[in-house]
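Minutes, project check-in

Agenda point 3 was the complex the collaborators sent over. CS summarized: two entities, 411 residues total, and the question is how they sit relative to each other. Sequences were read into the notes so everyone works from the same version.
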Amino acid sequence: MDNLREQLSQLKNIQPDQGFSTRSRLAILSTSQETPTPLTWKQVAMGIFEYGGALALAAVLFVVIAGNTPIGKMLAPFDAGSLNSAHLQAEAEAIDIQIKLLDFDSYEEISASAARSSTPATSSTKNISKKSQTSGSTNETSSLIVSEEETSTTILPDDALLLLSR
Amino acid sequence: MKAFLLLLTFLTGSVISLTTTVYAAECEFSGPIEELATIQSKPTTREQVLRELTLRKTILNELTSCLVKETQDKEKSLKATTLASPETKAYARWLENQFVETVSFYEFKKTQINDLGIEGSKDLAKEMLDRRRTNDRILFERTNLFITWNQNQELFTLGYKRLNDITATLEVFDLPPNHELGKLLIDAKTALEKANKLNLEAWESLKSSNQEGTLPLIKSSLETLAESYKVFFTISEESKKELPL
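CS then shared the predicted structure for the full assembly.
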């Protein structure tokens, strides 16, 4: 152990060979030094041209891809979503709902019209017009329909007006 | 998600449409009406005449409130409609002016009720009933048709977008002339154009004085639009078989 310590302590005394030192110094000193040179107008113009060209190309590519151009369609990723059955189904169902609503509204209109023009005699309705006609002087039919299925009876405004007009 | 939103939009629209016939609390006058009918069926006494007059005034007051509320509710549903073109906006304004005029009519009549006798109440009821038949009913029907027609425009826009998207997709494959998919595409376009023609006819009918033809035209336009979607489905199925999708 003491021997190793002694050897290590001698390392600081190691010196390069005098000839090697001289050769190395000469080699370093003989290497040419690059000194910064001021930019010329030509270099500035080339730089602007290079950066400007890159920006212009990027802009053209953006317009082509983002814009609705034929080239853009070719470059854009292929989209088969337009043939997606689920999307088609949703749109077709929205149309069906509208058609059914129109049918429902038409049915409601017909039902209301039929209810007004006929004398209701079903168990679920009672006809107030019979009461009013017993004392009335007119033969015109007035059908006031009061639904017993609902918690409160409902009389349509037009029917009420008809009764009041007598 | 987009498809779900589309369905939700129309289901919401349907709920609005179905609730338009429900009368408000102001329209509850069945009690006085029944009592009036009972009084009219008995021999007339002075007390009964006075009671009949009171009942008539009560019912007329409630009726006018009911009709004002009904008119305002319909106007609200019109105002809640999203309008895209200046033409539809102008049409909606025209309808709104009629609603304002209708409300003014009933509010003015309401101020006259307390001064009426029995004969006067009969005359007012006749006048209001006549207005309901010749004005209000047409205005309400026209408004319902307009709201429905306006809702449909989104469906037509979607239909044309779908046609354009499918056309663009098929163009990528550069199909040969007389290819089956090309023929189907022409069929879809023909159906869509026919549907749109009916849709525009419905709009013209809506603007005319006679509304009878509007509902059948709206319905036909939607049915024809649905036909074009059947062709879209066929194109979708055939494309899966014939194209490398």
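Noted in discussion: The first helix of chain A runs from residue 2 to 9.
Follow-up: revisit at the next meeting once the mutant set is ready.
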